[in-house]
Amino acid sequence: MKRKVIYKIIYPNGKIYIGKDLTGSINYFGSAKSELIEKDFNEEEKMSFTITKEILFQSYEIDDKELNKLEVEFIRKFNSNNPMIGYNQWPKFIK
């Protein structure tokens, strides 16, 4: 079985994105909407851009359905669906 993970991407502005990877790839950095991220950075800041990927959870045995559920739990825990904090757009942030 492949290693499945829940990860947190931290951008230079401190905003975060929580995602899952079903492939076990070290080079997967999620599917956050580029348009949302680009609005937060000027042209100079876009020239040199460093992000951090932190693994929050990993398993070789968890099924995809449980991993999906866990991803939502982490999004809510870190509040990364709040546009002031992160780039997750689902589940919908409710003030």
Question: Would you write up a description of this structure?
Answer:
By secondary structure, the protein is α+β, with helices and mostly antiparallel strands. It contains three helices and three strands. The longest helix has 15 residues, at 64-78. The radius of gyration is 14 Å and the shape is globular. 21% of the residues are buried.
How many DSSP H or I helices?
3
Structural class: alpha+beta
| Whole-number mean pLDDT | 95
Write the element-wise H/E pattern from the N-terminal end onward: EEHHEH
**What integer value in Å does the Rg equal?**
14 Å
Give start-end ranges of low-pLDDT stretches.
none
Query: Number of DSSP strands?
Result: 3
Oligomer: single chain
> Terminal Cα separation, in Å?
39 Å
SS strand fraction: 15-25%
Strand order of the largest sheet: 2-1-3
Largest sheet: 3 strands, antiparallel
Helix percentage range? 25-40%
Overall morphology: globular
